[in-house]
Design a protein that fits this description.
Helix content: 25-40%
Largest sheet: 7 strands, mixed
CATH class of the largest domain: Alpha Beta
Number of helices: 12
Strand order of the largest sheet: 6-5-4-3-2-1-22
Radius of gyration: 22 Å
Distance between the termini: 7 Å
CATH superfamily of the largest domain: Ribonuclease Z/Hydroxyacylglutathione hydrolase-like
Length: about 450
């Protein structure tokens, strides 16, 4: 019977990592770092599996909360191959190198003695162990594709299914002697501007391990992405008409590329002015990977080369003196949470001070982050987004538009009900999100076993 250990330190959205053991075959699903914690508190409980077999490591996508501690996991299990999709292979590398830079800076600024957990040299060595795998093909955990005829000789095999979250994101189907376990990773069941919706198995899964990120967020009645798109374009034009410019705090990977493509399309259709977009340097690095993999079947607009066709300008706050935004400019700058000393955090003070300007959020903002604190305040109130600047009056327009890359809770619930596995394991969600899914499944699927796995405790699947 398969065994499962939740390696995250709490039942929440954090440093995602999970262990599965099939007899003497063990695998790890993701190895992230908690975005809200520092030092060792940000890491999964990797020591829980030090004496257990780890024959393979799977990376579902290249977001930091799924890959940030991968070098540490790899060091503990030096013989385990690491499998991912081809786009993730190229996205994870610059992300981990950026993580080294961030940790070095935080070591100096916050005196976090454990930092950096790994070096640029460690990341470069790590990539030599990575193996990119085609989607929808069956693979041996020894690293080669297998045919139907070979299945009997492979006790444990896997298939990657497109997850629709960001470029290269996958769900992992594991087959051990006829028993099938499916881990969703982060998923989106709706089309975005660039990414197509997830294509997950609809039958034959015994155990489902699923994310629950938006479990505490009911979708507004009649919600459709098109409404968010129309509302954002209307707000942009209103800002431009009054002589203002817009700051969009945004994640450098995934969200930046999606919004650039959407806004470029709107420009071509005459819905917004033909002005230059500005992005951060890290956003450019990830956009290069998106352009290199424009041909992927999981991506729409395969002929669109973002850097060549849209030509966004790269903005570095350290190189800009006496910056003042001008009319009709749009700045898509990291980070989406406006974390201290990031480009969006530094630039925000120039937008907050002018009533004609706007700050628009298009993704998740943690309530405790500077972005979350700003969203919670009303125009005319004061907010501190950086200790260097102190309390600042909010004179500009601040608004949120839902361009989520995560599936709605209703669509995940519908998928679980349709798949109808014998056992569903709920992960990657805060306590209210996990509980909503648990209650819904108890009511709608009384024959299904539903588990919210406590951190660090082995359970049987």
């Amino acid at each position: 019977m398969p065994k499962f250990i939740n390696l995250t330190r709490a039942n929440e959205i954090g440093g995602n990592s999970y262990y599965l053991e099939f007899g003497d075959e063990g695998v790890v699903l993701d190895s992230g770092m908690h975005p809200k914690h520092d030092g060792n508190d940000a890491l999964p409980n990797l020591e829980k599996i030090d004496r257990r077999p780890v024959k393979a490591i799977f990376l579902t996508h290249a977001h930091h909360d799924h890959v940030g501690s991968m070098p540490l996991l790899a060091e503990r299990h030096p013989d385990a191959p690491m499998f991912m999709s081809e786009p993730t292979y190229f996205l994870a590398d610059p992300l981990l190198h950026n993580s080294v830079n961030v940790m070095k800076r935080q070591q100096l600024e916050l005196n976090i003695k454990e930092y950096p957990f790994y070096t640029h040299q460690d990341v470069s060595r790590l990539t030599k162990r990575w193996q990119a795998c085609h989607l929808n093909d069956r693979w041996s955990i020894r690293g080669w594709p297998i045919t139907e005829k070979d299945k009997k000789d492979e006790p444990l095999s896997f298939v990657f299914h497109p997850a629709g979250h960001i470029l290269g994101s996958v769900g992992v189907e594991l087959n051990y002697r006829g028993q099938k376990v499916f881990y969703t990773g982060d998923v989106n069941f709706a089309d975005q501007t660039l990414m197509k919706a997830a294509e997950f198995p609809l039958e034959g899964i015994d155990v489902l391990i699923t994310e629950t990120t938006r479990g505490a967020q009911p979708s507004p009645e009649g919600y459709h992405r098109q409404r968010s798109e129309e509302a954002l374009l209307k707000a942009l034009n209103e800002t431009y008409d009054q002589g203002g410019s817009v700051l969009m705090p945004i994640f450098a990977m995934g969200k930046t590329q999606e919004l650039l493509a959407f806004l470029y399309q709107a420009q071509r259709e005459g819905k917004i002015p033909q002005d230059t977009f500005y992005i951060g340097g890290l956003g450019r690095n990830f956009t290069e990977v998106y352009d290199r993999h424009a041909h992927c079947k999981e991506r729409k607009f395969n002929s669109l080369q973002i850097l060549e066709d849209i030509r966004p300008q790269v903005l570095d706050w350290k190189a800009v003196k006496d910056f003042r935004p001008r009319r009709s400019q749009l700045f898509l700058l990291p980070s989406g949470m406006m974390t201290g000393n990031t480009t969006s955090n530094r630039f925000a003070r120039y937008f907050l001070a002018r009533p004609e300007n706007s700050i628009f959020f298009v993704g998740y903002t943690d309530p405790d982050s500077p972005a979350g604190k700003l969203r919670a305040k009303a125009r005319g109130e004061k907010v501190e987004i950086h200790e260097e600047f102190g309390d600042q009056p909010i004179t500009c327009r601040v608004e949120h538009f839902d361009f989520t890359s995560h599936a709605t809770r209703e669509s995940i619930l519908a998928y679980i009900q349709k798949l109808n596995p014998r056992h569903t394991v709920l992960v990657h969600g805060d306590a209210p999100a996990l509980e909503w899914f648990r209650q819904q499944l108890i009511l709608s699927c009384p024959d299904m076993k539903v588990t919210v796995p406590p951190p660090g405790i082995e359970i049987e699947l």
